[in-house]
Amino acid sequence: MQNHLTAPRLATVQRFFDSRSSTDLMGSYSWCQAVAAALLPILGDFEVSLRNALHRSLSQFYASTDSAPWMLPISGPVHAGAPVPKTPHSMSSIDKKEIEKIIDRRSKRGRAVGHDDIVAALSFGFWEQLVNGLGRASHPNGLQARALTLAFPAAPAGTIYASQQFRERIVRLLRAVRDVRNRIGHHDAIWAIPEFDMQGYPGFIPRRPRHTLISTRLFASRIAWLASWIDPAVGNHIQRSDHWDCLQRLLSRHALATYRRRGGRAGSYDAVIEGSDTLGHIGTFHF
After folding, report:
1. Which stretches of 109-190 are DSSP H helices?
2. Which of 160, 189, 193, 230 is the most buried (most CB within 10 A)?
């Protein structure tokens, strides 16, 4: 496999984990893949909950229903049947083009296009920009306060939903989440996830493997915390899932050492679960 991974990419992994052998190097690389794989469904639960919450809140604002085509009018054949807002939601030309591309793709395949289909296909970045754009003067009065109240009813006590500060706080938090999502999607440096505080401001960037363990645990906790703004049940679901349990097991010195000693070959995660594979070997790796 090493022959099919670029030398610069492997060199980055080798430097960060201070790998001393080919087995150690591939084990470190495989451990990062395992962590990314465990994070993805956690991020997925958050993303689906987020987009549905924002879709529901805008539908309620514009059409007093849980699902309406608030993004209309847009070009292309759109499936009818839902209440149509009297005033469409104001969006940037980039956001409109993303919606039009979704409609065009589905239409070319001969599929009916409903607003729920559009919502499901929109990128994570679309929702971040949608929140960011809630402060536009072109929006109806009270849109931001109503939309964010409905989308994040369990936000911290004292939240002023109409404030610029709260909107910007959500945007910063979503941007930090999107960064990690993109790292996973592009097979990027998952070992260097920047920490961010409860306001969404970036902070410490891991410099050693032991930092990665702590920072990634913190990131997962931030996801569950932010998801709980939508509904505490969402955060609880994330933290009680098998994916969460898998991630917590992987984020230990024992798990990382197990992957490094075994070169990430099949059965490495089983060895982590069994808990006996690397006893006495942890000290041979640099953390």
Report:
1. 115-121, 124-132, 143-151, 164-185
2. 193
* Residues forming a β-bridge with 92: none
Angle (CA) 87-230-217 rounded to 5° is 135
- Give the global pTM: 0.89
Q: Which two tokens stand for residue 148?
A: 């964010």
Q: How far apart are CA 11 and CA 148, in angstroms?
A: 44
Alpha-carbon torsion angle 239, 244, 249, 250, nearest 10: -140
Residue with tokens 């109409």: 162
Q: Helices H, strands E: what count in the chain?
A: 12, 0
Q: Would you say the C-alpha torsion 250, 252, 253, 254 has a positive or negative sign?
A: negative
Cis ω on the peptide bond leading into residue 73 (within 30° of 0)?
A: yes
How distant, in Å, are the alpha carbons of 1, 4, 96, 99 from that of 75? 46, 44, 9, 9
Answer for the pair 255, 31: CB distance below 8 angstroms, yes or no.
Answer: yes
Tell me the per-residue pLDDT of 33-81, one tens digit each, with 9 for 90 and over: 999 999 999 999 999 999 999 999 999 998 899 998 888 754 444 444 5
Average pLDDT over residues 190-199: 94
- Find tokens 């706080």 and name the residue: 169
CB atoms within 10 A of CB 38: 22
Q: What is the pLDDT of residues 124-170, one digit of tens each?
A: 999 999 999 999 888 889 999 999 999 999 999 999 999 999 999 99
